[in-house]
Each structure stands twice: as C-alpha cells, then as structure tokens.
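Design request, tokens follow.
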C-alpha cells in the first residue's frame, strides 16, 4: 500500500526527535499530504480547517448532523486544496453517519487517508477538475453509487473504494497512472472496469470478489498482479493491454463465467492457477512469446490435478511452450499459425515439403515433431499416405494454398 508523502527536512527532523506520536493539532504537521500548517483548527460554518498561510486544509466537522458537505473554493482568500486524513471518517464524527452528499470546491487536489471512511450513507460526490490523488481507504465502506472522475486525476491509493457495495459505476480518466491494492475489492455492484490511457501500476486484489463485474478493459500496465480479479464470478470478458508481460497467480481464479480473454504477443510469464475454476473458458489462444507457465495455469476446475476441464481447448503456435503444455497435460489444441502442407515449418509450401510428404507416405522417413505430422496430414484423416502427398504436390505445382483446417 502506498501513500506518497513529502515532509520538509526540518519537520521530519523535529518529528523524529520529539513529536513522533503527537497529535496533529499539537505538531502542525500534515499527515496526509505532508504540508506544515498552523497548530489550531479554525471554524468555517460546519467545517474545521487549518492554514499554512498559502492554502487551506479541511480537517473535519464541528456539526455532526451535517448531511451535505460543500467544500468551498477559498477560505480567508486562500485556496482550499486538501481534505485531510480522517477528516470526515466515522471515527471522527462521534460515530455519526449523517453525510449524504459531498461537493468538492474547484481547488481541491487531494483527499486524504480514510477521509470519508465508513460514512455508509454517503451516496453522492461531485468531483472537480483539479483533483489529483485519492488517499488510502478514502471512501472505503461508503454508500457511493457512481463516481465520475475528471481528466487530471493520477492516483487512486490502496482500498480507496474497498467494500463500497453499492458502487455501480466509476469513470477512470486516461490521466490515471496508479491504482493500488484492493482499490475496488468487494464492490459487489460494480459492473464494468474500464481503465484506458497511461496506467503504469495496478495493485494486487484490485477487484477481488466483485461479483457483479461483467467486463474489464485495461491498458498500459505490464503486469496483472496476484488475485486481481479472483472470485469475480460474473466476469465474462477481459481485454488486456498489448504490452502485458506477466500475469501473477490466481489473477482470474474463480471467474466461472469468463468466456473471452486476450493474451497478447509479448506476454512471457503466467503464474500458477491463473485461470483455475474458469469453467466457461473453453478456448484460450496462447501467444508464442509465452514461455513460462505456472502449475495448472489453465484448464482445471480446482487446484487439484484430477479436476481437468475436459472440453478446454488451447490455441497454440507450432513447437511452442504452450503446445508442450497442452500435450503434457492432455488438452486438445489447435494451431494458430499452421500452414497445412508446410512440413518444414518455414512458412511456405514448396518442393521440400512435397518430397517429405512422399517420404512420409512411403514410410522411409519418420516425423521428428508432432506438428510435422499435423502439417502433412492435409486430408485430416489421421494418417499420412499418398493422398496427402498428392495434395501437397499439386499445391506446389499449381501454386495454390491448401485449405486450412478450422
């Protein structure tokens, strides 16, 4: 979990020496976004705030019966830029959960850690164009139903919306670069996650057990972390980024409705049990770049070797690691790159292939690789004979391709 903090050297030194555990009001040190401020809270209507002389930080409520929070643009002619850690958390409002709606002022750039934590009746927020960062667990366990973030947002920290069981829709702009662990975990009403643009980090367990989630689109990241979408039992379709390099263990474990997922060329590593219990994923096309497989990463209903999904089919490239996996595990497979008649696997059907097909038919030569036999059996009757050889010879002579088996 990661919340970025910047503290001036002088404040950090003083804090380390004598005030490491002193409360905020005594130290004047900002806990969420690392800015020094005045020591005492001031009041602005129902809001409490502090100032560092250049900007304003909202620290909480002085009237716990408040239902609508309107963060002003300015106080004391200074911009209101930050909602501080725990500002409106249930633990800081006398255990009251009366907040229904929040409207951010135009200058708010950061929302601190647990700022609205456990405000279960909070169901609406109006977001501004200036917001950059949302802190750890900022809206965790709230009643939000829809959030429309604007371009400019860069960071959603860990557990920011965890256990928001009523959250149905969230708009994530292309400017977001970091989404940390558990961010949407337990959002049991969320139907779609669409992350496009410049994402560089997507944390583990980001959507674990989001049982209403049906579609996921991700762009930018090179890795899908462990348990990212585990238990998303309604998930049907996943679109992964073209630059994906690795999928960690059980990332899609228990996605029993999953039918479609792309594994892009360039993907190198898939860890153990990534698609365990994906009982609806009956066809998986695997790029040639994928060379490292974890244990039972595809085609099993549980983590037991005896729970193979018999209808599972793999699309593989000739002589690839995926073909070896399918053969070793006893899965059916089809070729993604097969040119039938191309026995020598050089991408074309020529006289070399014709000569080899004749040798196979006469049984003077044996195939070195399984795919040689598959390429030579152009009549698809399970045997290599003169009919196959004649078809290949005619294809070479007439310069016409052999019909590819579906």
């Amino acid at each position: 979990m990661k919340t970025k903090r910047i503290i001036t050297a002088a404040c950090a030194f003083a804090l380390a020496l004598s005030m490491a555990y002193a409360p905020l009001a005594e130290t004047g040190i900002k806990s969420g976004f690392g800015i020094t401020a005045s020591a005492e809270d001031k009041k602005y209507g129902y809001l409490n705030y502090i100032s560092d002389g250049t900007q304003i930080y909202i620290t909480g409520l002085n009237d716990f019966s408040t239902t609508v929070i309107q963060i002003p643009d300015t106080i004391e002619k200074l911009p209101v830029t930050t909602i501080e850690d725990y500002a409106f958390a249930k633990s800081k409002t006398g255990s009251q959960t009366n907040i229904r709606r929040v409207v951010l002022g135009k200058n708010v750039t950061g929302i601190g850690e647990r700022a609205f934590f456990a405000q279960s009746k909070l169901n609406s927020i109006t977001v501004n164009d200036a917001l950059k960062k949302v802190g750890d667990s900022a809206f965790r366990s709230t009643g939000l139903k829809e959030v429309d973030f604007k371009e400019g947002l860069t960071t959603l920290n860990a557990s920011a919306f965890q256990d928001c069981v009523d959250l149905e829709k969230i708009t994530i702009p292309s400017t977001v670069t970091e989404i940390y662990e558990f961010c949407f975990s337990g959002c049991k009403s969320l139907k779609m996650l669409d992350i496009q643009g410049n994402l560089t980090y997507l944390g583990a367990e980001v959507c674990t057990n989001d049982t209403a989630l049906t579609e996921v689109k991700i762009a930018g990241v090179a890795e899908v972390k462990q348990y990212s979408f585990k238990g998303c039992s309604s998930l049907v379709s996943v679109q992964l980024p073209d630059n994906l390099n690795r999928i960690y263990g059980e990332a899609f474990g228990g996605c029993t409705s999953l039918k479609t997922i792309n594994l892009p060329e360039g993907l190198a590593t898939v860890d153990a049990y990534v698609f365990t219990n994906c009982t609806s994923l009956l066809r998986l096309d695997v790029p040639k770049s994928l060379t490292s497989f974890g244990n039972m990463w595809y085609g099993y209903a549980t983590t037991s070797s005896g729970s193979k999904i018999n209808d599972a089919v793999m699309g593989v490239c000739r002589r690839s690691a995926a073909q070896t996996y399918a053969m070793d595990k006893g899965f059916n497979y089809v070729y993604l790159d097969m040119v039938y008649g191309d026995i020598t696997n050089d991408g074309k059907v020529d006289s070399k292939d014709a000569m080899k097909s004749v040798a196979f038919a006469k049984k003077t030569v044996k195939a070195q690789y399984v795919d040689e036999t598959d390429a030579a059996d152009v009549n698809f009757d399970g045997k290599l004979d003169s009919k196959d050889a004649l078809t290949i010879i005619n294809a070479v002579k007439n310069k016409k391709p052999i019909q590819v088996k579906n």
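Comment from the thread starter after seeing the answer: thanks! The two ends are 47 Å apart (CA to CA).
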